[in-house]
Every structure is written in C-alpha cells, then in structure tokens.
Design a protein that fits this description.
Rossmann fold; transcription regulation; repressor; 41% helix; six-stranded parallel beta sheet; Lambda_DNA-bd_dom_sf
C-alpha cells in the first residue's frame, strides 16, 4: 500500500500539517529544525511520494507543458516537433502532455480543456505544415505559443521556420556551385512557403548580381507528379540548375530529367527543400536540399513558453533552415 502523509506524521511524531509544510517547502511556515529533520528522515525511510496533482492544485501551477497538434505525430518528418519539445521540456524540468487531434475540432476542444484542468504551465499549439490559423478561444486562458503556424489578428508568441532564409540558402548553394541560370519550381498552393522561398530566391540572385528572369519561375503541384509535369518546360528553358519547392517535386523532376536522357548533376543540378529523409537521402544521386528545422521548432517553442531566448518586445521567432549538401549539385 502507498505511504500517506498520515504515516509520515505518525513516524515523525508531528502533525499532518507540519508534514505538508515540510514536503511542500511552505514559505513562512514556522517549523523547528528538529521537527523538520524528523519529517525528512521519515519521508526517506518510508519512501513517501507527494501527490503531484494535489500539489499542482494547491499551488495553482504544475510542471506540465501541453502540446496540441493537428496531425504531426502521423506525418513522415514533422513528428520531430514533438521530439524537440519533449527533450527541451525535460531539460527545463517539465513533462510534456501531448494531444494529437488529427484535425478533429471536438477532440481539440476536449484536449485543451483537460490540459487547463491540470493547470499546465502553458500550451504549445502546432500544425504539421506552416500556415495561418484561427486560434482556439480556450487558449486565451493560459500562456500559449504557436509553433509552425501563426495568427494574423492574435498576439501570441510564434515560432516558425524562416522560409525566406531557406529559399536564399538553397539558391546560394547553386550559385556557389557555379550556376548562373537557375530556375525555381514553386508551388501552386498559397502559403508562407510559397512567398517566402520565392523571396529568398530573388534575394540570392540580386546579391550575386544575377538578373531575375520571370520565365524561369514555374509553378507546379507540390508533389512528385508536379515535378514530373514541369520537367520538360524546365529543360527547355536552358537552365543549368533548378531549385524545387520541396523534395517531392524534386523527385518528380528527377524522373522527367532521366526520361529526356539527361543526368543529374552533370547536365542539370537540382536542389530540394524539406530534407524529407525517406526521399532526399535515397534518391540517386542523393538530393541536396534545405532542412525544415522541426526538432528546433519544438525545442524553441518550449523555451519561448518559459521566457527563454526570444528577444524582449518580439512576438515572432524565425528558426533557420540549414542547407544539407549531398550529390545533386
């Protein structure tokens, strides 16, 4: 049977209130050193474990951090957000409570309500891809950080990938490899990734003194089929290199390039985005790409919630997207 506070009080020959004050480190409680020593001795000998939930409810705070996600636990690489948040929470002395709602509004509402009942220190609200959201109203009742998503009209701290820096890094890798006529295959889907990566591409060209040619920016479905469908047009443009919106588009482009009898990177260099390991590392040749920093997004989200790292007065933290060099340049 579990040891109770009453058992400790009996063994130490003190009141239950005295035991409570000692184990909860009650500030201002007038307890003699001899009584405190007897309580601590009884706690050690009996193996007493305080009730964490009761302590949380009495103190109005807990060592729990909530994470509410729409689908990131079931996506091929974005589950790293959970991994990063969990590791950082442990480092800071907290435990992560995770709810993966799969986009179900009722499940999301119930998960947030339960976390509020447990008086979590705060909640990370995350989506599996970078996009604008409407913040669930219950999140107004606790400290909240948005991770991999943002809300235009709500003032919440936000941690998101630096899409523009990532697009610039991808283009700079191609420029550094000696390419001067570079195409960009962008997505057809409106998103921060679409606008940010294009801005980065343009910024890198300008910094290198290369003239922007609008005819070298193509739009394609953000999937393997999209890359395959646009391959002929990219080849006909006469470019020596192409930066693809994501690794799946690059995979389709690989297929199209081979069908035209060309080789990567001898005839055309290819740069992806995402660093989706199951694709990028296993293409032939392995795909050079830019990583979406999912692990660091989760870790930075926890630090931001705890008031660590974000500059004072800032509400948005941009996390760097690093280039990953392989063999396609």
């Amino acid at each position: 049977m579990s040891v109770t506070m009453r058992d400790v009080a009996r063994a130490a020959n003190v009141s239950i209130a005295t035991v409570s004050h000692v184990v909860n480190d009650k500030q201002g409680a007038r307890i003699g050193e001899d009584a405190r020593r007897r309580v601590l001795k009884a706690v050690a000998e009996l193996g007493y474990q305080p009730n964490a939930l009761a302590k949380t409810l009495s103190q109005g705070r807990s060592r729990f951090i909530g994470l509410v996600a729409d689908a990131i636990a079931s996506t091929p690489f974005a589950g790293q957000i959970i991994h990063g948040a969990q590791d950082e929470a442990w480092r800071q002395g907290y435990v992560l409570l995770i709810a993966n709602t799969e986009g179900n509004a009722a499940a999301e509402k119930e998960a947030i309500a339960m976390m509020l009942q447990y008086q979590v220190h705060g909640i990370l609200y995350s989506t599996w891809y970078h996009r604008e959201i409407e913040v669930p109203p219950p999140l107004q009742h606790t400290d909240t950080v948005l991770v991999n998503c943002y809300a235009v009209d709500a003032e919440y701290p936000t941690v998101v990938p630096d899409e523009e820096q990532g697009g610039r890094a991808a283009t700079e890798e191609l420029i550094a490899a000696g390419h001067r006529r570079i195409a960009f295959v962008n997505t057809t889907s409106p998103s921060p990734a679409k606008t940010g990566r294009l801005a980065g591409y343009l910024s890198a060209l300008e910094a290198a003194g290369l003239e922007y040619d609008a005819s070298l920016v193509f739009e394609a479905e953000p999937a393997q089929e999209g890359g395959y469908a646009v391959a002929a047009s990219v080849i006909e443009s006469g470019v020596s290199a192409v930066f693809c919106h994501n690794d799946r588009v690059a995979m389709g482009l690989y297929d199209g390039v081979r069908e035209h009898g060309l080789r990567i990177p001898t005839d055309i260099a290819v740069m992806g985005f995402d660093n989706q390991e199951v694709i990028a590392a296993h293409l032939r040749p392995p795909l050079s790409t830019v990583a979406l920093p999912h692990y660091e997004l989760g870790a930075a989200g926890v630090r931001t919630l705890l008031g660590i790292g974000m500059e004072r007065g800032s509400s948005r933290l941009l996390v760097e997207c690093p280039p990953i060099a392989r063999a396609s340049l």
